[in-house]
Design brief:
Chain lengths: 373, 333
């Protein structure tokens, strides 16, 4: 087996595991290999690492494939004496490589049994298969939940930086003529310093209504904790949890870390009423009764839940009433859009009164949705 | 070729930076392939320092562009010094000169404020360009940067194109607060700096602090390694351990004991929660082993923990018993 084929298979295996390796990456990689000595494994590894890997999240995956290719089989040792690719080869590669990229689908299909699946069998690899941020909220094991939680600070940070940028962009370029002219008096009427008008930032008052029943628990807690961490972007965030009874949970969010939030809410807030199954109708009704007077036209209401009512009354009029008293109302649903309105889901009734609804099945979608607030 | 990499390692050591084989290889490759290096890693592991050391090693000037939210071309590339331009116009206003001439005048080099990127490119000698915290910039700026990094030229509409005499060595650092665009990543070699192994950290301490004894350096490296295993908000990095070593020396200590550590822990922990947690660990164990204590891992500084919850319920192992939740789901259906 020539070295070129080994490398090509190596790229193919990486691609198959979900790591983006473009033809230009490959060319870089060959160039790098051409300029170093392969006798020392660190050099060899580093050449591959620095040219192919561009995101630290993929490191475990990369290491795994690397190990399979170059550690278990003594590839490097065999390659030692071999002629390194000549310049001409390299120039020719670019064309070949882009072809390889085009037909990669076919190769994948053929080689899937022999090549790609070896990693799936081992236990550690599937982590890297997907971007962890696009992992589904419906998690099967405690480990999955843990992994998700470690991502949490990252996403909060990213979201915060996005929102700062968004805010900043809004208040550029408006010139405050009065103050500019006033300032220019001292320079003989020449406006040396342009003074820009700061746009009044509108920081909405947020009321977050959150289904904390078991079916959507994961999702709502992530959402709530994210909201809590973004508190400085909103004037005021108040959170309410409900199953078939509503209670305010703002104070629990304020200092809690997302790791203990879930249990806290269920234990210390009166969110469970008589039946113990989520009942949007009763919850909305009670919410309106108890907190309705605190709603104002500055308020934005966010509802997190799947809208599954367990066949209770939907009481859509309560939602309508809430909407009437507030500025905006958004619905975040952790289910796929296809499954809305199926079974006991009452999304259709409720959506009539919502300004927008978001399908939020993973953290990435949640990030995007929040950005639009 | 192998000698080249070893040489880089040695030269970098002379310049005050210890790099392992992998790091040195990446540095070598960036030189060989003329590619920028994108350095990622936790804060304080020496992302910026590697560029500084590199410029010292090469004996080239370091041009640093510190990025921040909202940085734009006028702060990074160039800007017309319009105050001076206006004054110039005022000055020549009465002399009835040709308008064209004046215009040519005011858009000349004299009125150009050079910012780091233009500086790095137009410098007569090669430079080391450090673009710090690239993840802070917005997308437009990143796109602009992309152009500079691929062409190494800046076009100024009124003036013409400034082409680089020498391609600068470029280092980009990022704390990964947001994802950089694929296009930018593709152009760079990727380097990830992680917390060093204790032996390496010991060497770093010995290099950075001439007065330190080998024993103290080893002790510090070992203790810091243990602290990094504790779940903290911000694990202490190399910068912190250097600070710590320095302060221990200025306290006249040549040996690390529990009491000294207790008094100086605030140098390592940058958050109150972390400090309290570490403090508790040392106090209860009377040693610097930083073993996890039951209960203190998640509950120690929980301000929101309501009075009703018992400490044992804060045990992280128990907090989501998914099995019971699964069972619950079934009941619901």
């Amino acid at each position: 087996m020539s070295f070129f084929y080994t490398m090509q298979n190596f790229f193919e295996a990486l691609r198959h595991e979900g790591m983006p390796v473009s033809p230009s990456h490959a060319v870089d990689c060959y160039e790098a290999l051409n300029s170093i000595d392969w006798d020392v494994e660190d050099y060899f590894y580093s050449a591959l690492f620095s040219t192919l890997l561009k995101d630290y999240n993929y490191k475990p995956l990369f290491d795994h494939v690397y190990e399979h290719f170059f550690k278990s089989s003594p590839c490097i040792l065999r390659l030692k004496g071999q002629q390194v690719l000549s310049r001409e080869d390299l120039l020719g590669l670019e064309g070949e490589n882009s072809q390889a990229g085009d037909v990669s689908g076919d190769i994948n299909a053929e080689g899937a049994e022999s090549q790609g699946t070896f990693i799936n069998k081992s236990s550690s690899a599937p982590d890297g298969r997907k971007n962890p941020l696009s992992q589904d909220f419906r998690l099967d094991s405690i480990d999955d939940v843990r992994r998700m939680e470690t991502l949490f600070p990252i996403i909060a940070k990213r979201l915060a930086s996005k929102m700062i940028i968004k805010n900043k962009r809004n208040d550029r370029n408006f010139i405050n003529f009065r103050r500019t002219m006033r300032k220019s008096m001292s320079t003989g009427g020449i406006p040396l310093d342009l003074i820009t008008r700061r746009k009044q930032k509108e920081r909405p008052v947020l009321f977050a209504l959150c289904d904390v029943s078991v079916s959507v628990l994961q999702f709502s807690c992530f959402a709530l904790a994210l909201l809590a961490s973004l508190e400085k972007f909103f004037q005021h965030v108040r959170s309410f949890g409900f199953v078939d009874e509503v209670d305010e949970i703002t104070y629990m969010l304020r200092h809690a870390d997302p790791f203990t939030l879930r249990t806290n809410v269920l234990k210390n807030a009166r969110v469970v009423g008589r039946r113990g199954y989520s009942d949007y109708g009763i919850s909305f009704k009670n919410f309106l009764e108890r907190y309705g007077s605190q709603l104002s036209l500055k308020t934005t209401v966010l509802i997190f839940g799947d809208g599954r009512n367990n066949w209770g009354n939907d009481e859509a009029w309560a939602v309508e009433e809430i909407r009437k008293r507030t500025k905006k109302m958004y619905w975040f649903n952790p289910e796929n859009k296809d499954t809305w309105d199926t079974g006991d889901s009452r999304m259709r009734e409720y959506l009539k009164y919502c300004d927008r609804s978001f399908e939020v099945t993973n953290l990435l979608q949640m990030e995007d949705a929040f950005c639009e607030l | 070729m192998q000698d080249n990499i070893k040489q880089i390692e040695q030269d970098m050591y002379q310049a005050g930076y210890i790099c392992d084989d992998k790091t040195a290889t990446t540095l070598f490759l960036s030189e060989a392939l003329h590619k920028p290096i994108l350095v990622e890693g936790p804060a304080g592991v020496g992302k910026t320092a590697i560029a500084q050391a590199f410029s010292r090693m090469k004996g080239l000037p370091l041009v640093r562009l510190q990025c921040y939210e909202g940085i734009d071309e006028s702060k990074a590339m160039y800007e017309w010094d319009y105050k001076r331009q206006l004054l110039h116009i005022q000055a020549v206003a009465n002399k009835q000169l040709d308008v064209k001439e004046v215009e040519q005048d005011i858009f000349s080099d004299y009125f150009l404020l050079r910012r780091p990127l233009l500086n790095a490119i137009s410098c007569p000698t090669p430079t080391v360009l450090l673009i710090d915290e690239i993840d802070k910039v917005d997308f437009e700026f990143e796109a602009m940067l992309l152009e500079i990094l691929s062409e190494f030229q800046v076009s100024i509409p009124e003036f013409g194109t400034v082409k680089a005499n020498h391609i600068p060595y470029v280092f980009l650092t990022s704390n990964a607060t947001r994802e950089l665009s694929e296009a930018l990543k593709r152009r760079c070699l990727y380097m990830y700096l992680d917390f060093p192994i204790p032996e390496l950290e010991e060497q770093i301490l010995l290099l950075k602090i001439p007065d330190i004894s080998e024993r103290l350096a080893r002790q510090i490296a070992e203790v810091v390694r243990k602290i990094r295993l504790v779940h903290l908000k911000k694990a202490p990095s190399i910068a912190e351990s250097i600070d710590w070593a320095q302060s221990l020396i200025s306290l006249g200590k040549d040996d690390l004991d529990v009491d000294t550590a207790l008094r100086t822990l605030n140098i390592l922990a940058k958050y109150r929660e972390d400090l309290v947690k570490l403090d508790q660990m040392v106090q209860t164990q009377r040693s610097l082993n930083f073993l996890p204590v039951l209960g203190s891992q998640s509950g120690g500084v929980q301000m929101s923990a309501p009075q009703t919850s018992k400490p044992s319920e804060l045990n992280p192992k128990q907090k989501f018993s998914m099995k019971s939740i699964e069972g619950f789901k079934n009941v619901k259906k």
